[in-house]
């Protein structure tokens, strides 16, 4: 058997192995989305508790660091079929309703904590929705 046939077979095997390792379709999109999120100051986290809560199943947590806020400015909500369900805080919490009204529909939960805000969402197909998320969270920067 000629040497070039052996080289061609080995090259084909190596190339097919590389194609299996390369991200495809949705994986590639999520990689780009998460990279853009990092450039906008968001940390992407995989939290186990998001898988234990029905409303957050399939969600990924995006955390944005903020200035320390007062205890009365903290809140936690989950999106239900009837709207937002309050786990802590209320509609009277400063800037809360303004943020909730502007959040993209993919957001299933939000926790404003002492030094950050964590958003649980189903990552969108359109990267432009990330800009909508970042814009919606801006009122919390001043609290």
TrEMBL record:
<feature type="transmembrane region" description="Helical">
    <location>
        <begin position="6"/>
        <end position="22"/>
    </location>
</feature>
<protein>
    <submittedName>
        <fullName>Uncharacterized protein</fullName>
    </submittedName>
</protein>
<keyword id="KW-0472">Membrane</keyword>
<keyword id="KW-0812">Transmembrane</keyword>
<keyword id="KW-1133">Transmembrane helix</keyword>
């Amino acid at each position: 058997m000629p040497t070039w046939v052996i080289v061609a077979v080995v090259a084909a095997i190596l190339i097919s192995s590389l194609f299996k390792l390369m991200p495809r379709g949705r994986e590639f999109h999520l990689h780009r989305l998460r990279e853009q999120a990092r450039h906008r100051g968001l940390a992407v986290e995989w939290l186990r508790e998001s898988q234990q809560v029905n409303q957050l199943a399939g969600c990924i947590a995006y955390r944005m660091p903020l200035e320390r806020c007062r205890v009365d400015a903290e809140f936690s909500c989950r999106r239900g079929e009837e709207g937002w369900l309050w786990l802590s805080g209320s509609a009277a919490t400063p800037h809360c309703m303004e943020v909730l009204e502007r959040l993209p529909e993919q957001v299933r939960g939000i926790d404003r904590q002492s030094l950050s805000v964590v958003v649980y969402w189903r990552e969108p197909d359109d990267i432009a929705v990330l800009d909508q998320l970042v814009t919606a969270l801006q009122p919390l920067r001043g609290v």
